[in-house]
Design a protein that fits this description.
Distance between the termini: 42 Å
Keywords: Membrane, Transmembrane, Transmembrane helix
Organism: Corallincola spongiicola
Strand content: under 5%
Helix content: over 70%
Order of helices and strands: HHHHHHHHHHHHHHH
Largest sheet: none
Oligomer: single chain
Protein name: ADP,ATP carrier protein
């Protein structure tokens, strides 16, 4: 087993067993989540429509903003391990209640959609906090890729199985498999921590104060502001693309079981393409093109893709494009997004990144809602109108990337000059 794991990363004596338990946890978490992700789409589109789906996405972002200070408070006072177990217990009980409500034909689609988005943010954050509480930095750098690989495989197999679960047993089967998955996570042995979990929790910073300081850094640093706009456009364009796909799905399928089977298959292809991109494309694109040029790949794909869909509005072509866009977002674009912070100092890095990854990322969901509201109720847009809006967003995104290229070049030249002046720095 050690020889097999060493193909992915280096494992020191005594590290294999706890690393495999954490990898199994990551696998089960993503496996269960990808039972529920097609399920939430199936319920929201069968009970309501794509516009209500956009409302639910925006409400989810607003509720997350309100819950973040409470979340930080609970982590500081309970520690990562107790929080992780508590969130899992709440999840299992909540899923059972949603399943019961659906069986009683209660309107659970919108509350379930909002609940799942919030729950997944917290449970994934808690899982990685538990991993950080267990490992020292040197060991974490070596073993986190193994744990992340378990999550990636869990997401892929979860989506594939969800497709067949909906075909065989429908909504009830998806709820049952997901609940079983989270119970399995709950019962998976937790390695005895080599660090005090509470110490990890104590490193948390008060969310409100953290955000205000981070916003101040953004206003004073043009480079950070460009990164914030980059992230904002990334999520706005992708969310609006999901709305366009949902509108197509409404026209093609009816009933929760059919919609769930479609999204199970769709997410299977997205996760499969993401694995291939992460393994074979990301590092090569960054090495061959460099970070500044690689930034333009997804915005240019977005521009060409939505222009093509405007002239050829076909369902299968929309699905093909969204698989390509989502897989590149989850692999290449996420990697590039994190590398943009490398030239920054410690304070700018931690506080600015915290604001960008929370406020500006979720702000994209709210802007998508505004676009859908204006398009549905005042402008009366059809799908072609939303396609043209995403074309416009892609053009603005390309302009932001070009500005980022200039700043990256200036920062790199400045770092080179300081390195030459002080070789020991």
């Amino acid at each position: 087993m050690t020889r097999s794991v060493n193909l992915i990363t280096q494992v020191a004596p005594g590290e294999l067993r706890p690393a495999l338990w954490l990898t199994l946890k990551a696998f089960l978490l993503l496996f269960a989540y990808y039972q529920l992700k097609p399920l939430r789409e199936a319920l929201i589109l069968s009970e309501h429509d794509a516009t209500i789906r956009s409302y639910a996405t925006a409400i989810q972002a607003l509720v997350l903003f309100l819950l973040m200070p409470l979340y930080a408070y609970l982590v500081r006072h309970l520690g990562t391990q107790r929080m992780f177990s508590g969130v899992l217990v709440v999840a299992v009980i909540s899923l059972a209640l949603f399943w019961l409500g659906h069986g009683l034909q209660l309107p659970v689609a919108a509350p379930f959609y909002i609940w799942l988005g919030i729950f997944n943010v917290f449970i994934i954050a808690q899982f990685w906090a538990e991993c950080a509480a267990y490992y020292q930095p040197e060991a974490g750098k070596r073993l986190f890729p193994l744990i992340a690989a378990g999550a990636t495989v869990g997401g892929l197999l979860g989506a594939v199985s969800a497709h067949w679960v909906f075909i065989v047993s429908g909504v009830g089967g998806a709820f049952a498999v997901a609940i079983s998955g989270y119970v399995a996570v709950w019962q998976t042995p937790r390695p005895i921590s080599s660090k005090v979990a509470q110490a990890s929790a104590d490193r948390s910073v008060d969310a409100k104060q953290h955000w205000f300081r981070g916003l101040n850094h953004l206003l004073l640093n043009p480079y950070l502001m460009l990164i914030a706009l980059f992230v904002l456009l990334l999520n706005t364009g992708n969310s609006l693309g999901e709305y366009i796909l949902a509108r197509w799905v409404e026209l093609q399928y009816s009933g929760a079981d059919q919609i769930g089977a479609f999204y199970g298959g769709f997410y299977s292809w997205v996760n499969f393409a993401t694995v291939l991109c992460q393994l074979f494309l990301v590092s090569r694109m960054i090495r061959w093109l460099g970070i500044p040029s690689a930034l333009l790949l997804v915005p240019c794909l977005m521009l060409g893709g939505y222009l093509t869909l405007f002239f050829l509005p076909l369902f299968w072509l929309t699905c093909l494009y969204k698989v390509a866009e989502n897989s590149l977002d989850y692999s290449l674009q996420n990697t590039l997004r994190h590398t943009l912070f490398l030239p920054l100092s410690g304070v700018q890095l931690y506080e600015g990144k915290a604001v960008i990854d929370t406020i500006f990322w979720r702000l994209g969901d709210l802007i998508q809602l505004v676009i859908v509201l204006l398009g549905s109720h005042w402008l009366l847009l059809d799908l072609s109108g939303y396609l043209l809006i995403n074309v416009g967003l892609a053009l603005v995104w390309i302009w932001i990337c070009l500005r980022l290229q200039r700043h990256i070049a200036l920062l790199s030249a400045d770092l080179s000059r300081r390195g030459a002046a002080d070789p020991g720095a």
